[in-house]
UniProtKB/TrEMBL annotation:
<feature type="binding site">
    <location>
        <position position="126"/>
    </location>
    <ligand>
        <name>L-histidine</name>
    </ligand>
</feature>
<dbReference type="Pfam" id="PF13393">
    <property type="entry name" value="tRNA-synt_His"/>
</dbReference>
<dbReference type="GO" id="GO:0005524">
    <property type="term" value="F:ATP binding"/>
</dbReference>
<feature type="binding site">
    <location>
        <position position="130"/>
    </location>
    <ligand>
        <name>L-histidine</name>
    </ligand>
</feature>
<feature type="binding site">
    <location>
        <position position="258"/>
    </location>
    <ligand>
        <name>L-histidine</name>
    </ligand>
</feature>
<dbReference type="InterPro" id="IPR033656">
    <property type="entry name" value="HisRS_anticodon"/>
</dbReference>
<comment type="similarity">
    <text>Belongs to the class-II aminoacyl-tRNA synthetase family.</text>
</comment>
<dbReference type="GO" id="GO:0004821">
    <property type="term" value="F:histidine-tRNA ligase activity"/>
</dbReference>
<dbReference type="InterPro" id="IPR004516">
    <property type="entry name" value="HisRS/HisZ"/>
</dbReference>
<dbReference type="GO" id="GO:0005737">
    <property type="term" value="C:cytoplasm"/>
</dbReference>
<feature type="binding site">
    <location>
        <position position="112"/>
    </location>
    <ligand>
        <name>L-histidine</name>
    </ligand>
</feature>
<keyword id="KW-0067">ATP-binding</keyword>
<keyword id="KW-0648">Protein biosynthesis</keyword>
<dbReference type="InterPro" id="IPR045864">
    <property type="entry name" value="aa-tRNA-synth_II/BPL/LPL"/>
</dbReference>
<keyword id="KW-0963">Cytoplasm</keyword>
<comment type="subunit">
    <text>Homodimer.</text>
</comment>
<keyword id="KW-0436">Ligase</keyword>
């Protein structure tokens, strides 16, 4: 049965790999608390409109990558390709503007129909953050600081660069857009087909085209920086000054863009050269127009999302699994005693490996496999005396300990 393979672009997270991802998600959540961000979770599917309207009908995600289906009730449903739209939807449906500013982070699976390759899957995971209701640049600085803090805490900072750009406010953007359209129209015959289609609807997207011919044109295209009005320039200056205050270096990348109109000002990516072509680990920016585009109140927003699989590849191995204590009963009476003892130890917070069957040798092997730090051996003789043989599996030493004082003795090691 061929269908016993996982669906292309999906894969099973076996415990080892799962531990790395949990570590990343937990690091992000715990650091979030330090900045006042709390985790929230939206459904993994939404009405298709939530994404189609917000991601724009010319974006790759909407035109090529969405998992969309009709459910049994005839509703058009999409598995979320990202979480910002879902959180903006939830912000509106739950009247969250009452709680402004809203500071949330998230973790969960996302779905995009893409060509699977290293660092690119059809079901993948993101951690992310959204700050809603703060129009000041202090918000942008805070979410970038939070992202950098996670990358540092995961030990990845040495291999990461922050790339930064500004898209300006709507006025600057409109001015730049006109200049850009004129420029590309002058070279229409050299543009790729995709970019010709983008020219009217989404000209900024041409700037991050991967087509070689487009790239040559882009290299000579007018720069956004020359069309920023004063407000936009000030905003960007305050951002870079703020990053200076907290010692975060950045590299200007004038080609860093987001195609959609509700993005403005800050645009950034944390990138690495250690992952080959899929080098962007964390991407974000300001999206002051998003909530209103969806029909909610005018609300400022800024945030980022990071690919957990890409981070996991950089992190490598996760924290070691907890080393258990192996309980080894010999005989029926000891078996029963060990069952209650195991329960007691576990409730005291001590990890216990209690085999299911087998002789002493088999159980010792199992203890070894579980990387147990000690073995507690209880046979009928020991039981009669109320003691256990405690063997330190690293040092190889062994001693007799009263069963009643086991918790204390084990806790010390
Ligand atoms: P790319 O240019 O790599 O397609 P993107 O612009 O589509 O990225 P975003 O929508 O900004 O990516 O998502 C944020 C992050 O999520 C990316 O930087 C990446 O780390 C991760 N990511 C996006 N798509 C995938 C995927 N298909 N598989 C694994 N990780 C992904
Ligand atoms: Mg993509």
């Amino acid at each position: 049965m061929a269908s016993l393979q996982p669906v292309r672009g999906t894969h099973d997270l076996l415990p080892e790999e799962n531990r790395v991802q949990d570590h990343i998600a937990e690091t992000a959540r715990a650091i979030g608390e330090l900045y006042g961000y709390h985790r929230m979770t939206t459904p993994i599917f939404e009405f298709t409109d939530v994404f189609a309207r917000t991601l724009g009908d010319t974006s790759d995600v909407v035109t090529k990558e969405m998992y969309t289906f009709e459910d049994r009730g005839g509703e058009k449903i999409t598995l979320r390709p990202e979480n910002t739209a879902g959180i903006a939807r939830a912000y509106i449906s739950n009247g969250m503007q009452q709680m402004s500013p809203v500071k949330v982070c998230y973790y969960g699976p996302m779905f995009r129909y893409e060509r699977p390759q290293k660092g690119r899957q059809r079901q993948f995971h993101q951690i992310g953050v959204e700050l809603l209701g703060v129009e000041q640049v202090a918000g942008d600085i805070e979410v970038i600081a939070y992202g950098a803090h996670i990358l540092k805490s995961l030990g990845l900072w040495d291999n990461i660069t922050l790339e930064l750009n500004t898209l300006g406010d709507p006025e600057s953007r409109a001015a730049y857009r006109n200049v850009l359209v004129d420029y590309f129209k002058g070279h229409f015959d050299k543009l790729s087909e995709d970019s010709r289609n983008r020219l009217d609807k989404n000209p900024l997207r041409i700037l991050d085209s991967k087509d070689e011919g487009d790239r040559e044109l882009v290299a000579n295209a007018p720069l956004f920086a020359e069309y920023l009005n004063e407000h936009s320039q000030t905003f960007f200056k305050q951002l870079t000054d703020g990053l200076g205050d907290i010692g975060i270096n950045y590299q200007l990348n004038p080609r860093l863009v987001r195609g959609l109109d509700y993005y403005c000002h800050t645009c950034f990516e944390f990138v690495t050269s250690t992952l080959g072509a899929q080098g962007t680990v964390m991407a974000g920016g300001r999206y002051d127009g998003l909530v209103s585009t969806m029909g909610g109140p005018q609300t400022a927003g800024v945030g980022w999302a990071a690919g957990v699989e890409r981070l996991a590849m950089m992190v490598g191995t996760g924290p070691a699994a907890v080393r258990p204590v192996a309980l080894i009963p010999m005989g029926d009476a000891a078996e029963s005693r060990c069952r209650s003892l195991a329960q007691q130890l576990r409730e005291a917070g001590i990890a216990v490996e209690l085999g299911y069957a087998g002789n002493m040798k088999k159980r010792m092997k199992r203890a070894d496999k579980a990387n147990a730090k000690m073995a507690v051996i209880i046979g009928d003789d020991e039981l009669a005396k109320g003691v256990a043989m405690v063997r330190d599996l690293d040092a190889g030493e062994q001693r007799e300990v009263a069963i009643d004082s086991l918790i204390g003795v084990i806790g010390e090691r």
